[in-house]
Amino acid sequence: MGIYLNPGTDKLDISRNSRLYVDKSQMISFLNSLIDTEERFVCVSRPRRFGKTMAANMLTAYYSKDCDSHASFSGLSITADPSFERYLNKYNVIKIDINGAISNKGTLSVSKYYEREILPELREKFRDVELPENITLANAITRIHSYTHEKFVIIIDEYDVIMRDEAFSKDLDDYLMFLVSLFKDEVTNTAIALAYITGILPVIREKAQSKLNNFTEYTMLDGGELSPYMGFVWDEVKELALSNGMDSEDLRSWYDGYKICGIDVFSPKSVVTAIIKKKCGDYWSQTGTYESIIDYIRMDFEGIKDDVVRMIAGESIPFDPSTYRNSLNDIKSKDDVFASLIHLGYLSYDSKTEGCFIPNKEIRTEWIKAIKLNPDYKNVLSRVNMSRELLEATWNMDCDKVSQALFESHGYVTSNLTYNNEGSFQSAIRLAYFYSDAYYTVINELPTGKGFADVVFIPFVPNVPAMIVELKKDSTPDIAINQIKEREYPKALEKYRKNLLLVAISYETSTKNHYCKIEKAQ
Protein backbone atom coordinates (compact mmCIF):
# COMPACT_ATOMS: atom_id res chain seq x y z
CA MET A 1 0.00 0.00 0.00
CA GLY A 2 1.16 3.52 -0.75
CA ILE A 3 0.40 7.08 0.23
CA TYR A 4 -1.45 7.85 -3.00
CA LEU A 5 -1.65 4.47 -4.74
CA ASN A 6 -3.96 1.99 -3.01
CA PRO A 7 -3.83 3.74 0.40
CA GLY A 8 -5.87 0.98 2.06
CA THR A 9 -8.40 1.12 4.88
CA ASP A 10 -6.73 3.18 7.62
CA LYS A 11 -8.91 6.28 7.24
CA LEU A 12 -12.14 4.27 7.06
CA ASP A 13 -11.07 2.35 10.17
CA ILE A 14 -10.52 5.63 12.02
CA SER A 15 -14.01 6.80 11.06
CA ARG A 16 -15.58 3.55 12.21
CA ASN A 17 -13.70 3.72 15.52
CA SER A 18 -15.15 7.17 16.22
CA ARG A 19 -17.81 7.72 18.89
CA LEU A 20 -20.53 8.25 16.30
CA TYR A 21 -20.59 6.60 12.90
CA VAL A 22 -23.44 6.48 10.38
CA ASP A 23 -23.41 3.78 7.71
CA LYS A 24 -23.39 5.41 4.26
CA SER A 25 -21.94 2.40 2.49
CA GLN A 26 -24.99 1.84 0.25
CA MET A 27 -23.70 4.62 -1.99
CA ILE A 28 -21.10 2.07 -3.13
CA SER A 29 -23.87 0.02 -4.73
CA PHE A 30 -24.86 2.96 -6.92
CA LEU A 31 -21.27 3.73 -7.88
CA ASN A 32 -20.67 0.07 -8.69
CA SER A 33 -23.49 0.32 -11.23
CA LEU A 34 -21.46 3.02 -13.03
CA ILE A 35 -18.21 1.05 -13.28
CA ASP A 36 -16.96 0.87 -16.88
CA THR A 37 -19.95 2.79 -18.24
CA GLU A 38 -20.19 6.18 -19.93
CA GLU A 39 -21.51 7.50 -16.58
CA ARG A 40 -18.39 6.49 -14.64
CA PHE A 41 -17.25 10.11 -14.20
CA VAL A 42 -18.89 11.50 -11.05
CA CYS A 43 -18.62 14.95 -9.45
CA VAL A 44 -20.21 15.41 -6.00
CA SER A 45 -20.42 18.98 -4.67
CA ARG A 46 -21.49 19.79 -1.10
CA PRO A 47 -20.67 22.46 1.50
CA ARG A 48 -17.98 21.88 4.08
CA ARG A 49 -18.88 19.47 6.89
CA PHE A 50 -21.19 17.32 4.75
CA GLY A 51 -19.09 14.14 4.80
CA LYS A 52 -17.40 14.39 1.39
CA THR A 53 -13.99 13.35 2.67
CA MET A 54 -15.35 10.46 4.76
CA ALA A 55 -17.16 9.14 1.69
CA ALA A 56 -13.99 9.45 -0.41
CA ASN A 57 -12.03 7.54 2.24
CA MET A 58 -14.68 4.80 2.30
CA LEU A 59 -14.51 4.41 -1.48
CA THR A 60 -10.72 4.30 -1.31
CA ALA A 61 -10.88 1.47 1.23
CA TYR A 62 -13.42 -0.42 -0.84
CA TYR A 63 -11.78 -0.36 -4.27
CA SER A 64 -8.08 -0.43 -3.29
CA LYS A 65 -5.98 -3.39 -4.32
CA ASP A 66 -3.12 -4.69 -2.16
CA CYS A 67 -5.34 -5.07 0.92
CA ASP A 68 -8.27 -7.10 2.23
CA SER A 69 -11.09 -4.76 3.26
CA HIS A 70 -13.58 -7.34 4.53
CA ALA A 71 -12.95 -6.55 8.19
CA SER A 72 -13.27 -2.79 7.63
CA PHE A 73 -16.71 -3.23 6.04
CA SER A 74 -17.94 -5.86 8.48
CA GLY A 75 -21.46 -5.03 9.63
CA LEU A 76 -22.09 -2.34 7.03
CA SER A 77 -25.14 -2.58 4.79
CA ILE A 78 -23.16 -2.80 1.55
CA THR A 79 -21.93 -6.29 2.46
CA ALA A 80 -25.39 -7.67 1.66
CA ASP A 81 -25.39 -6.08 -1.80
CA PRO A 82 -24.82 -8.44 -4.77
CA SER A 83 -22.09 -6.17 -6.13
CA PHE A 84 -20.04 -6.08 -2.91
CA GLU A 85 -17.70 -8.99 -3.58
CA ARG A 86 -17.55 -8.34 -7.31
CA TYR A 87 -15.66 -5.04 -6.98
CA LEU A 88 -14.08 -5.27 -3.51
CA ASN A 89 -10.31 -4.60 -3.72
CA LYS A 90 -10.32 -5.03 -7.48
CA TYR A 91 -8.83 -1.71 -8.68
CA ASN A 92 -5.72 0.36 -8.40
CA VAL A 93 -6.92 3.45 -6.58
CA ILE A 94 -5.17 6.80 -6.86
CA LYS A 95 -6.47 9.03 -4.05
CA ILE A 96 -5.60 12.75 -4.18
CA ASP A 97 -6.51 15.62 -1.83
CA ILE A 98 -5.89 18.91 -3.64
CA ASN A 99 -5.58 20.72 -0.30
CA GLY A 100 -2.43 18.67 0.25
CA ALA A 101 -0.91 19.95 -2.96
CA ILE A 102 -1.73 23.56 -2.09
CA SER A 103 -0.02 23.17 1.27
CA ASN A 104 3.07 21.27 0.10
CA LYS A 105 3.78 21.88 -3.59
CA GLY A 106 6.03 24.91 -3.11
CA THR A 107 6.88 26.39 -6.50
CA LEU A 108 5.72 23.30 -8.40
CA SER A 109 2.46 23.20 -10.33
CA VAL A 110 -0.18 20.78 -9.08
CA SER A 111 0.47 18.40 -11.96
CA LYS A 112 4.23 18.38 -11.38
CA TYR A 113 3.74 17.93 -7.64
CA TYR A 114 1.56 14.86 -8.04
CA GLU A 115 3.78 13.38 -10.74
CA ARG A 116 6.70 13.73 -8.35
CA GLU A 117 4.72 12.06 -5.56
CA ILE A 118 2.76 9.35 -7.38
CA LEU A 119 5.04 8.13 -10.18
CA PRO A 120 7.56 6.50 -7.78
CA GLU A 121 4.71 4.47 -6.27
CA LEU A 122 3.57 3.39 -9.73
CA ARG A 123 7.11 2.37 -10.69
CA GLU A 124 7.44 0.35 -7.47
CA LYS A 125 4.22 -1.56 -8.06
CA PHE A 126 4.53 -2.02 -11.82
CA ARG A 127 8.21 -2.82 -12.14
CA ASP A 128 7.77 -4.58 -15.46
CA VAL A 129 6.29 -1.49 -17.11
CA GLU A 130 8.77 1.11 -18.32
CA LEU A 131 7.82 4.58 -17.03
CA PRO A 132 10.38 7.17 -18.23
CA GLU A 133 11.45 10.02 -15.98
CA ASN A 134 9.59 12.68 -17.94
CA ILE A 135 6.31 10.78 -18.30
CA THR A 136 3.07 12.44 -17.17
CA LEU A 137 0.73 10.82 -14.68
CA ALA A 138 -1.94 10.38 -17.37
CA ASN A 139 0.50 8.69 -19.76
CA ALA A 140 1.80 6.46 -16.98
CA ILE A 141 -1.74 5.25 -16.24
CA THR A 142 -2.33 4.66 -19.94
CA ARG A 143 0.90 2.70 -20.36
CA ILE A 144 0.24 0.55 -17.28
CA HIS A 145 -3.24 -0.31 -18.54
CA SER A 146 -1.90 -1.12 -22.00
CA TYR A 147 0.68 -3.57 -20.60
CA THR A 148 -1.29 -5.11 -17.71
CA HIS A 149 -4.96 -4.50 -18.61
CA GLU A 150 -5.48 -3.35 -15.03
CA LYS A 151 -7.83 -0.42 -14.52
CA PHE A 152 -7.79 2.49 -12.12
CA VAL A 153 -10.22 4.27 -9.83
CA ILE A 154 -9.31 7.96 -9.48
CA ILE A 155 -10.59 9.77 -6.36
CA ILE A 156 -9.91 13.50 -5.99
CA ASP A 157 -11.08 15.31 -2.84
CA GLU A 158 -11.56 19.11 -2.84
CA TYR A 159 -10.93 19.18 -6.58
CA ASP A 160 -12.19 22.79 -6.85
CA VAL A 161 -9.85 24.52 -4.37
CA ILE A 162 -7.88 26.12 -7.19
CA MET A 163 -11.02 27.01 -9.15
CA ARG A 164 -12.81 28.87 -6.37
CA ASP A 165 -9.89 30.86 -4.95
CA GLU A 166 -8.53 33.77 -7.00
CA ALA A 167 -5.19 33.45 -5.19
CA PHE A 168 -4.51 30.37 -7.36
CA SER A 169 -5.75 31.83 -10.65
CA LYS A 170 -2.27 31.64 -12.21
CA ASP A 171 -2.31 27.87 -11.63
CA LEU A 172 -5.78 27.31 -13.07
CA ASP A 173 -4.91 26.62 -16.72
CA ASP A 174 -2.21 24.11 -15.81
CA TYR A 175 -4.55 22.43 -13.33
CA LEU A 176 -7.36 22.16 -15.86
CA MET A 177 -4.98 20.54 -18.34
CA PHE A 178 -3.98 18.09 -15.61
CA LEU A 179 -7.64 17.12 -15.10
CA VAL A 180 -8.30 16.97 -18.85
CA SER A 181 -5.31 14.69 -19.41
CA LEU A 182 -6.72 12.29 -16.80
CA PHE A 183 -10.39 12.33 -17.66
CA LYS A 184 -11.01 13.61 -21.18
CA ASP A 185 -8.21 12.08 -23.19
CA GLU A 186 -9.82 9.20 -25.09
CA VAL A 187 -6.80 6.96 -24.61
CA THR A 188 -6.26 7.63 -20.91
CA ASN A 189 -9.86 7.50 -19.77
CA THR A 190 -10.34 3.96 -21.05
CA ALA A 191 -7.94 2.98 -18.28
CA ILE A 192 -10.28 4.48 -15.69
CA ALA A 193 -13.06 2.28 -14.32
CA LEU A 194 -14.44 5.07 -12.12
CA ALA A 195 -13.58 8.71 -11.44
CA TYR A 196 -15.01 10.31 -8.30
CA ILE A 197 -14.25 13.96 -7.55
CA THR A 198 -15.65 16.10 -4.74
CA GLY A 199 -15.74 19.81 -4.01
CA ILE A 200 -17.91 22.66 -2.83
CA LEU A 201 -18.77 23.79 -6.36
CA PRO A 202 -19.93 21.87 -9.41
CA VAL A 203 -17.68 22.00 -12.46
CA ILE A 204 -17.21 25.66 -13.36
CA ARG A 205 -18.99 26.57 -16.58
CA GLU A 206 -17.07 28.16 -19.46
CA LYS A 207 -13.49 27.59 -18.27
CA ALA A 208 -13.89 23.99 -17.16
CA GLN A 209 -17.21 22.59 -18.25
CA SER A 210 -16.30 22.14 -21.89
CA LYS A 211 -13.15 20.33 -20.79
CA LEU A 212 -14.86 18.14 -18.17
CA ASN A 213 -18.33 17.76 -19.63
CA ASN A 214 -18.15 13.99 -19.32
CA PHE A 215 -18.80 14.29 -15.56
CA THR A 216 -22.28 13.81 -14.13
CA GLU A 217 -22.81 16.33 -11.33
CA TYR A 218 -24.60 15.63 -8.04
CA THR A 219 -25.11 18.97 -6.33
CA MET A 220 -27.04 20.83 -3.61
CA LEU A 221 -29.49 21.80 -6.35
CA ASP A 222 -29.86 18.27 -7.72
CA GLY A 223 -28.27 15.45 -5.76
CA GLY A 224 -29.84 12.68 -7.82
CA GLU A 225 -29.29 9.15 -6.55
CA LEU A 226 -26.56 10.35 -4.18
CA SER A 227 -28.88 12.74 -2.28
CA PRO A 228 -29.23 10.54 0.87
CA TYR A 229 -25.52 9.77 1.13
CA MET A 230 -24.01 13.22 1.62
CA GLY A 231 -25.33 14.42 4.96
CA PHE A 232 -27.60 12.69 7.46
CA VAL A 233 -31.26 11.99 6.71
CA TRP A 234 -34.03 12.31 9.31
CA ASP A 235 -34.21 8.60 10.23
CA GLU A 236 -30.48 8.58 10.91
CA VAL A 237 -30.72 11.67 13.11
CA LYS A 238 -33.63 10.17 15.07
CA GLU A 239 -31.63 7.00 15.68
CA LEU A 240 -28.59 8.96 16.84
CA ALA A 241 -30.76 11.04 19.16
CA LEU A 242 -32.49 8.00 20.63
CA SER A 243 -29.28 6.09 21.27
CA ASN A 244 -27.54 9.11 22.81
CA GLY A 245 -30.27 10.59 25.00
CA MET A 246 -30.95 13.66 22.84
CA ASP A 247 -34.23 15.28 21.77
CA SER A 248 -34.59 14.59 18.05
CA GLU A 249 -36.99 17.51 17.58
CA ASP A 250 -34.42 19.86 19.09
CA LEU A 251 -31.86 18.55 16.61
CA ARG A 252 -34.36 19.01 13.80
CA SER A 253 -35.11 22.64 14.67
CA TRP A 254 -31.40 23.45 14.79
CA TYR A 255 -30.02 21.51 11.83
CA ASP A 256 -32.78 20.37 9.44
CA GLY A 257 -33.82 22.32 6.37
CA TYR A 258 -31.54 21.33 3.52
CA LYS A 259 -33.76 19.82 0.83
CA ILE A 260 -32.04 17.83 -1.90
CA CYS A 261 -34.36 16.16 -4.39
CA GLY A 262 -37.14 16.29 -1.80
CA ILE A 263 -35.05 14.67 0.94
CA ASP A 264 -34.42 16.47 4.24
CA VAL A 265 -30.67 16.49 4.82
CA PHE A 266 -28.73 17.51 7.95
CA SER A 267 -25.14 18.71 8.27
CA PRO A 268 -23.34 15.70 9.83
CA LYS A 269 -20.71 17.76 11.63
CA SER A 270 -23.31 19.90 13.38
CA VAL A 271 -25.41 16.91 14.48
CA VAL A 272 -22.41 14.92 15.68
CA THR A 273 -20.96 17.88 17.60
CA ALA A 274 -24.33 18.58 19.26
CA ILE A 275 -24.70 14.95 20.35
CA ILE A 276 -21.14 14.70 21.67
CA LYS A 277 -21.54 17.97 23.61
CA LYS A 278 -25.12 17.05 24.64
CA LYS A 279 -26.21 20.51 23.59
CA CYS A 280 -27.57 21.99 20.38
CA GLY A 281 -25.87 25.18 19.28
CA ASP A 282 -24.23 27.04 16.44
CA TYR A 283 -21.26 24.90 15.43
CA TRP A 284 -21.16 26.10 11.83
CA SER A 285 -18.80 29.01 12.52
CA GLN A 286 -16.16 26.62 13.84
CA THR A 287 -15.41 25.45 10.30
CA GLY A 288 -17.03 28.06 8.06
CA THR A 289 -17.36 31.75 8.80
CA TYR A 290 -20.10 34.26 8.23
CA GLU A 291 -17.68 36.44 6.27
CA SER A 292 -18.73 34.29 3.32
CA ILE A 293 -22.14 35.97 3.46
CA ILE A 294 -21.10 39.57 4.00
CA ASP A 295 -19.75 40.49 0.57
CA TYR A 296 -22.73 38.91 -1.13
CA ILE A 297 -25.44 40.70 0.85
CA ARG A 298 -23.69 44.02 0.20
CA MET A 299 -24.20 43.56 -3.54
CA ASP A 300 -27.11 45.69 -4.68
CA PHE A 301 -28.61 43.25 -7.15
CA GLU A 302 -32.34 43.54 -7.87
CA GLY A 303 -33.52 44.26 -4.33
CA ILE A 304 -31.34 41.66 -2.66
CA LYS A 305 -31.67 43.35 0.75
CA ASP A 306 -35.46 42.98 0.77
CA ASP A 307 -35.14 39.30 -0.08
CA VAL A 308 -32.55 38.74 2.65
CA VAL A 309 -34.89 40.31 5.21
CA ARG A 310 -37.74 38.10 4.03
CA MET A 311 -35.56 34.98 4.27
CA ILE A 312 -34.39 35.90 7.77
CA ALA A 313 -38.08 36.23 8.61
CA GLY A 314 -38.62 32.67 7.39
CA GLU A 315 -39.86 33.22 3.84
CA SER A 316 -38.82 31.34 0.69
CA ILE A 317 -37.66 33.48 -2.25
CA PRO A 318 -38.18 32.57 -5.95
CA PHE A 319 -34.87 31.52 -7.45
CA ASP A 320 -33.63 30.54 -10.92
CA PRO A 321 -30.37 28.54 -10.90
CA SER A 322 -30.05 28.25 -14.66
CA THR A 323 -27.73 31.22 -15.27
CA TYR A 324 -25.18 30.45 -12.55
CA ARG A 325 -21.68 29.75 -13.86
CA ASN A 326 -20.59 27.69 -10.81
CA SER A 327 -18.05 30.31 -9.80
CA LEU A 328 -17.62 32.35 -6.61
CA ASN A 329 -15.67 34.96 -8.57
CA ASP A 330 -18.11 35.69 -11.40
CA ILE A 331 -21.28 36.98 -9.71
CA LYS A 332 -23.53 38.99 -12.04
CA SER A 333 -27.04 38.78 -10.62
CA LYS A 334 -29.10 38.15 -7.51
CA ASP A 335 -29.67 34.55 -8.60
CA ASP A 336 -25.88 34.12 -8.83
CA VAL A 337 -25.57 35.34 -5.24
CA PHE A 338 -28.20 32.93 -3.98
CA ALA A 339 -26.77 30.01 -6.01
CA SER A 340 -23.33 30.60 -4.49
CA LEU A 341 -24.81 30.67 -0.99
CA ILE A 342 -26.71 27.44 -1.67
CA HIS A 343 -23.52 25.64 -2.67
CA LEU A 344 -21.74 27.10 0.38
CA GLY A 345 -24.54 25.85 2.65
CA TYR A 346 -25.90 29.23 3.77
CA LEU A 347 -29.16 28.73 1.86
CA SER A 348 -31.22 25.75 0.83
CA TYR A 349 -33.19 25.14 -2.36
CA ASP A 350 -36.48 23.33 -2.83
CA SER A 351 -36.83 22.16 -6.44
CA LYS A 352 -40.58 21.63 -6.00
CA THR A 353 -41.31 25.24 -5.09
CA GLU A 354 -38.26 26.64 -6.94
CA GLY A 355 -37.46 28.77 -3.93
CA CYS A 356 -34.41 29.33 -1.74
CA PHE A 357 -34.48 29.95 1.99
CA ILE A 358 -32.39 29.86 5.18
CA PRO A 359 -32.49 26.19 6.17
CA ASN A 360 -32.44 26.16 9.96
CA LYS A 361 -31.76 27.86 13.29
CA GLU A 362 -27.99 27.30 13.14
CA ILE A 363 -27.60 28.97 9.74
CA ARG A 364 -30.04 31.75 10.65
CA THR A 365 -27.71 32.54 13.55
CA GLU A 366 -24.87 32.94 11.03
CA TRP A 367 -26.98 35.32 8.97
CA ILE A 368 -27.71 37.44 12.03
CA LYS A 369 -23.97 37.65 12.74
CA ALA A 370 -23.42 38.80 9.17
CA ILE A 371 -26.03 41.54 9.08
CA LYS A 372 -24.73 42.96 12.37
CA LEU A 373 -21.76 44.19 10.36
CA ASN A 374 -23.95 45.91 7.78
CA PRO A 375 -25.65 49.22 8.71
CA ASP A 376 -28.29 48.69 6.02
CA TYR A 377 -29.86 46.05 8.26
CA LYS A 378 -29.98 48.15 11.44
CA ASN A 379 -33.79 48.21 11.64
CA VAL A 380 -34.05 44.48 11.06
CA LEU A 381 -31.63 43.85 13.91
CA SER A 382 -33.70 46.04 16.21
CA ARG A 383 -36.72 43.81 15.45
CA VAL A 384 -34.68 40.69 16.14
CA ASN A 385 -33.38 42.08 19.42
CA MET A 386 -36.88 43.08 20.55
CA SER A 387 -38.43 39.73 19.66
CA ARG A 388 -37.75 38.28 23.12
CA GLU A 389 -39.80 41.06 24.67
CA LEU A 390 -42.58 40.51 22.15
CA LEU A 391 -42.72 36.80 22.97
CA GLU A 392 -43.06 37.55 26.67
CA ALA A 393 -45.71 40.21 25.92
CA THR A 394 -47.70 37.59 24.01
CA TRP A 395 -47.44 35.11 26.87
CA ASN A 396 -48.59 37.87 29.22
CA MET A 397 -51.46 38.72 26.83
CA ASP A 398 -50.30 42.33 26.48
CA CYS A 399 -52.21 43.14 23.30
CA ASP A 400 -51.12 46.79 23.00
CA LYS A 401 -47.44 45.86 23.02
CA VAL A 402 -47.99 43.04 20.55
CA SER A 403 -49.92 45.33 18.17
CA GLN A 404 -47.17 47.96 18.17
CA ALA A 405 -44.39 45.44 17.61
CA LEU A 406 -46.19 43.83 14.67
CA PHE A 407 -46.91 47.22 13.13
CA GLU A 408 -43.17 47.98 13.12
CA SER A 409 -42.12 44.52 11.92
CA HIS A 410 -44.66 44.57 9.07
CA GLY A 411 -43.12 47.76 7.73
CA TYR A 412 -39.55 46.44 7.89
CA VAL A 413 -40.25 43.20 6.05
CA THR A 414 -42.41 44.56 3.25
CA SER A 415 -42.37 47.31 0.65
CA ASN A 416 -45.42 49.31 -0.43
CA LEU A 417 -45.93 46.79 -3.22
CA THR A 418 -45.93 43.74 -0.95
CA TYR A 419 -47.39 45.22 2.24
CA ASN A 420 -50.82 43.67 1.72
CA ASN A 421 -49.48 40.30 0.57
CA GLU A 422 -50.53 37.56 3.00
CA GLY A 423 -47.21 35.75 2.73
CA SER A 424 -45.36 38.94 3.56
CA PHE A 425 -47.60 39.47 6.58
CA GLN A 426 -46.70 35.96 7.74
CA SER A 427 -43.01 36.81 7.27
CA ALA A 428 -43.50 39.91 9.39
CA ILE A 429 -44.90 37.68 12.13
CA ARG A 430 -41.93 35.33 11.83
CA LEU A 431 -39.44 38.20 12.05
CA ALA A 432 -41.24 39.75 15.01
CA TYR A 433 -41.12 36.41 16.81
CA PHE A 434 -37.56 35.63 15.66
CA TYR A 435 -36.43 34.15 18.98
CA SER A 436 -39.49 31.92 19.23
CA ASP A 437 -37.41 29.14 17.66
CA ALA A 438 -35.74 28.72 21.05
CA TYR A 439 -39.08 27.36 22.25
CA TYR A 440 -41.21 26.48 19.25
CA THR A 441 -41.49 24.76 15.94
CA VAL A 442 -43.23 27.39 13.81
CA ILE A 443 -45.48 26.25 10.96
CA ASN A 444 -47.28 28.38 8.40
CA GLU A 445 -50.64 27.23 7.03
CA LEU A 446 -51.00 24.20 9.30
CA PRO A 447 -54.04 21.99 8.48
CA THR A 448 -56.23 22.24 11.58
CA GLY A 449 -59.87 21.38 12.22
CA LYS A 450 -61.89 22.68 9.26
CA GLY A 451 -59.22 24.81 7.62
CA PHE A 452 -55.65 26.08 7.78
CA ALA A 453 -54.27 28.12 10.66
CA ASP A 454 -52.09 31.00 9.42
CA VAL A 455 -49.22 30.49 11.88
CA VAL A 456 -48.94 27.87 14.62
CA PHE A 457 -46.32 27.80 17.38
CA ILE A 458 -45.80 24.26 18.71
CA PRO A 459 -43.60 24.18 21.84
CA PHE A 460 -40.79 21.70 22.27
CA VAL A 461 -39.88 22.86 25.78
CA PRO A 462 -42.13 22.37 28.84
CA ASN A 463 -44.39 24.99 30.45
CA VAL A 464 -44.56 27.17 27.34
CA PRO A 465 -47.99 27.84 25.81
CA ALA A 466 -48.78 26.68 22.31
CA MET A 467 -50.12 29.45 20.10
CA ILE A 468 -52.48 29.64 17.13
CA VAL A 469 -52.16 32.92 15.23
CA GLU A 470 -54.84 34.08 12.80
CA LEU A 471 -54.15 37.08 10.55
CA LYS A 472 -56.81 39.35 9.09
CA LYS A 473 -56.69 42.32 6.71
CA ASP A 474 -59.34 45.07 6.98
CA SER A 475 -61.14 43.09 9.63
CA THR A 476 -61.20 42.85 13.42
CA PRO A 477 -59.46 40.61 15.96
CA ASP A 478 -62.89 39.43 17.17
CA ILE A 479 -63.67 38.01 13.72
CA ALA A 480 -60.28 36.30 13.67
CA ILE A 481 -60.81 34.79 17.12
CA ASN A 482 -64.24 33.53 16.11
CA GLN A 483 -62.78 31.92 12.99
CA ILE A 484 -60.25 30.03 15.12
CA LYS A 485 -63.09 28.67 17.24
CA GLU A 486 -65.67 28.03 14.50
CA ARG A 487 -63.21 26.17 12.30
CA GLU A 488 -61.97 24.22 15.31
CA TYR A 489 -58.29 25.02 14.79
CA PRO A 490 -57.42 23.96 18.38
CA LYS A 491 -58.28 20.34 17.53
CA ALA A 492 -54.86 19.93 15.89
CA LEU A 493 -53.23 20.97 19.19
CA GLU A 494 -55.38 18.89 21.51
CA LYS A 495 -52.44 17.87 23.70
CA TYR A 496 -51.75 21.54 24.46
CA ARG A 497 -55.38 22.54 25.18
CA LYS A 498 -54.61 23.26 28.82
CA ASN A 499 -51.92 25.72 27.80
CA LEU A 500 -52.98 27.16 24.44
CA LEU A 501 -53.25 30.80 23.39
CA LEU A 502 -55.48 32.02 20.56
CA VAL A 503 -53.84 35.09 19.02
CA ALA A 504 -55.82 37.25 16.58
CA ILE A 505 -54.03 40.00 14.64
CA SER A 506 -55.60 42.39 12.16
CA TYR A 507 -54.61 45.57 10.36
CA GLU A 508 -56.23 48.28 8.26
CA THR A 509 -54.81 48.79 4.77
CA SER A 510 -55.70 52.52 4.81
CA THR A 511 -54.08 53.45 8.14
CA LYS A 512 -51.78 50.41 8.58
CA ASN A 513 -52.90 50.30 12.21
CA HIS A 514 -52.56 46.87 13.80
CA TYR A 515 -54.84 45.35 16.41
CA CYS A 516 -54.54 42.28 18.60
CA LYS A 517 -56.68 40.08 20.79
CA ILE A 518 -55.39 37.14 22.83
CA GLU A 519 -57.48 34.52 24.63
CA LYS A 520 -56.74 31.32 26.46
CA ALA A 521 -58.36 28.32 24.83
CA GLN A 522 -61.35 27.04 26.78
The structural class is alpha/beta
- Shape, please? elongated
Mean pLDDT value: 87
Strand order of the largest sheet: 2-3-4-1-5
Distance between the termini: 72 Å
Q: Which percent range fits the helix content?
A: 25-40%
What is the strand content? 15-25%
How many alpha or pi helices? Answer: 21
Radius of gyration: 27 Å
Low-confidence stretches: none
Main sheet overview: 5 strands, parallel
How many β-strand stretches? Answer: 16
Describe the structure.
This protein has 522 residues and is α/β, with parallel strands linked by helices. It is built from 21 helices and 16 strands. The chain has helices at 10-16, 27-32, 52-63, 70-73, 84-87, 98-104, 110-125, 137-148, 161-164, 172-183, 234-243, 248-255, 268-277, 291-298, 304-312, 334-344, 361-371, 378-395, 399-413, 422-432, 477-486, and strands at 41-45, 92-97, 152-157, 192-199, 216-218, 232-233, 258-260, 263-266, 317-318, 348-350, 355-357, 440-448, 451-459, 466-473, 500-507, 514-520. The strands form 4 sheets. It has a 5-stranded parallel sheet with strand order 2-3-4-1-5. Strands 12-13-14-15-16 form a 5-stranded mixed sheet, with helices on both faces. Strands 6-8-7 form a 3-stranded antiparallel sheet. It is elongated. 45% of the residues are buried. The mean pLDDT is 87.
